[in-house]
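Practice problem: predict the structure.
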Amino acid sequence: MPKRFHSTLILVVVFGLGLSAGVGVMVWAWPGLRARYFPHRREPIQQFLTRTLKLNPQQVPPLHALIKDIGVRRHQLHLQFVPAYTKVCNDFTAVQRQERDAYAPIRQQELDKLRAILTPAQWQTFQQQRAQASHNQPPRQTDLCRHLAPAPPPGAAH
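Answer:
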């Protein structure tokens, strides 16, 4: 075999390996695949501290109690700020509702202009498509800030 054939074959093999490696890295980097098949499991803080600090068995129960107490105190502090969060969310929802109400007449004017351009058959088709599209959409979320959701139990991790 001539030398050119060997060098061409080597170049094709190197190109193929590079291409397959690139595709493999792209698949690996795809968040959906990585999240589904290779979940990142975080080690609980108690296990991490026990392992890294080489705690003896007498130190582990007080560490667990301390971490639980920290979680409870953090949740109690969070509950103090819930009214402020709720007020901000309600203000945001009210402003968003005002914006939607202010846009409604403009939207209707634009739809009237579109209706004037289209034939009655085209308008009927447009209305049917709009109805079908709105039927396929999930319902509008009314509680945007999720402040009406049941509160987690005290000591639950956030």
